Amino acid sequence: MRQLFKGLVIAGLLGIMIVMPADSVLADNVLKIARQQDSTTLDPILTIQNADIWVMNNMNSLLVRVSRDGTTIEPDLAESWSISPDGKVYTLNLRANLKFGDGSPLKSSDAKYSLLRLRDKKGSIMAGMFTDIDTIDAPDDRTVVINLKQRSAPFLAALAMFSAAVLPEKALKELGDDFGSNPVGAGAFNFKEWKRGQYISMVKNPYFWEADRVKLDGVEWSYIPNDNTRILKLQTGEVDAAIFIPFNRAKELDRNKDINVHMDPSSRMDHMLVNHSHKPLDDLRVRQAIYYALNR
C-alpha cells in the first residue's frame, strides 16, 4: 500500500508526514486522502501551491519526468529525445497512440501549444524558466522540436516541472479561464468532481500510457483543515491517509499497529517578503538593517 501511494498517487511528495492504515481495504478501491488545504486552481501554469501540484501530478503527464529517486530525467510522453551538439535544439519523439483522458488524441501540436502558453500567457508563474524557448516546431504528430535562443543546461529538467504538463489545445481554447476548474490531462487519473471546500475526486484514466500500472480506481482529496479532525478520521477509517500531521503526534500514532507513519527528509527555505511601498521599508537602509539583524 505505502509504495503504491508514494509511486502512483503522489509522485515526488517530500518533506511531509504521511499517515495511513496498514493492510486496510480501500472502499470501492478509492484512496481517500485528508489534507489541511484546499486547491486553488488545477491549471498548472497559474499556481505554485503544493495543494494544487500534488493533485495535478495525479492527472497530468509531461514530455519527460523526474525518476522516482529524484536523480535523473526519464521518458514520459516522449519515449526518446536528442539534443543538438550546440545544445540549442531539443527533438522529442512521442509515444505512439497517446490519448488524453477524454479519449482525444495527444499530438505534438498539443505539446507545442502547452509550452508556448506556459511561456507567454499573462499570469504564468513559471514562465521565466521557459523564456529561453525561441520557437517550437511540430513537423508531424509525434515529433516536437524545441529551438532555444541559447544553450540552457537545466532546460530538460525544466520540462519535467509540473507546469510543463502537456494539455489538450482544444480544451484550453474552449474552456479558457474555466480550464483550471474543469481540467483535462493525460495522467494516471481523470478529473471527476471538485466541491470547493470539501473534496476533489478523480477516477482512473483508461487511456493513460501506463494504465496497467495503476492499481486504484480513484483518488479523493478531502479538505479537512483541523489537525485533530484529520487524525480522528484516519483513526476511524473514514480516510485512508492524512498529510501534514503535527510532529508532536507522530510517536503517539506510530504506536498504533494499524497506522503507518511515513516521514521523508526534506530541504526547506523560508522567505520574508518586504513591501517597499510602505514606510519605513521604502528606505534601503531600514531593509539592510533588518537583513543584518536576522540570524540567517
**Poorly predicted residue ranges:** 1-19
User: DSSP strand (E) fraction?
Assistant: 15-25%
Briefly, what CATH class of the domain at 37-223? Alpha Beta
Would you tell me the structural class of the helices and strands? alpha+beta
Order of helices and strands: HEEHEEEEHEEHHEEEHEHEH
What form results from the Cα inertia axes? globular
Helix content: 10-25%
Tell me about this structure.
By secondary structure, the protein is of the alpha+beta class. The protein has a domain at 37-223: Dipeptide-binding Protein, Domain 1 (Dipeptide-binding Protein, domain 1, Alpha-Beta Complex). Helix content is 22%, strand content 24%. It has 8 helices and 13 strands. The protein has helices at residues 2-9, 50-59, 108-120, 155-158, 169-175, 227-235, 250-254, 284-293; strands at residues 17-21, 30-35, 64-66, 73-75, 78-83, 89-94, 133-140, 143-148, 189-195, 199-204, 218-223, 241-243, 259-263. It has a 7-stranded mixed β-sheet, sandwiched between helices. Strand 7 (133-140) and strand 8 (143-148) form a beta hairpin. The longest helix is centred in the middle third of the chain and has 13 residues, at 108-120. It is globular. It starts with a helix and ends with a helix.
Keywords:
296 residues, alpha+beta, Dipeptide-binding Protein, domain 1, four-stranded antiparallel beta sheet, 8 helices, globular, disordered N terminus
Overview in brief:
Residues 1-19 have low confidence and may be disordered. By secondary structure, the chain is α+β, with helices and mostly antiparallel strands. The strands form 3 sheets. It has a 7-stranded mixed beta sheet with strand order 9-10-11-2-12-1-13, sandwiched between helices. The chain has a 4-stranded antiparallel beta sheet with strand order 5-6-8-7, covered by helices on one side.
